[in-house]
Fold this protein.
Amino acid sequence: MSNGILFEVSDGLAHITLNRPERLNAIDAEAARRWRELAQEVAERDDITAVLFDAAGPAFCAGGDVAAMATMGGSGEVVRELADIIHDGHRVFAQTPKPIVAAVQGAVAGGGLGFMLVADYVVAGEAAFFVSKYADIGLTPDCGVSTLLPEAVGVRRALQLLLTDRSLTAVEGQEWGLVAEVVPDDLLAARARAVAEHWLSGATGAYGQAKRLVRDSVARSYADGLDDEARTIGAAFDTPDARARVAAFAARSTR
């Protein structure tokens, strides 16, 4: 089993950790395959209802390990195949109705932006910073960056990051919409876990379906979205969890 990405499940929470700190957690071919496998496992397992995504070492992720592939005689076709594998994992994580919180520290560069934005809620340490760097090595966005970045910050700001050497601090990243909150670095792990535990202790299914509705909205019409909302809230209302919560709410409101 690959040690490039660690994985454990406990009490409904899947914990995924990028674990190549000596390479700034850049994703090589082995880690890419592991990422795709884990995405499928998370989607298929009924005992997983939320995901905590983080990284070992001083940096979160520098994207794909293109430098390693180049020194090993890689070609454009090999890079494309690696990107396709990573993207397969991204698609599954985006589509699964299980909320994901990411804890990010240090450098989030290149494709690392795409890995971060796979998460539905991002907590950043105060020393985190965000930068593109694709054009510095003559490459173009991958790892979902060309879609997920403008979704998060808007087209104009996405272009600022991709077409210049602009680097954002953690606070600037929050102001732009890249991350939800910024905390002291020594509190990062605890805060991200607290977000996940909030989901687990609440109406987890409802959180997951809210995530799915919003993620799916990008690729469908408003009318289709309304139909999906109606179906989803109807199905949610019939679940034992929702019935108990609605009944409790009704009892409180009539006191």
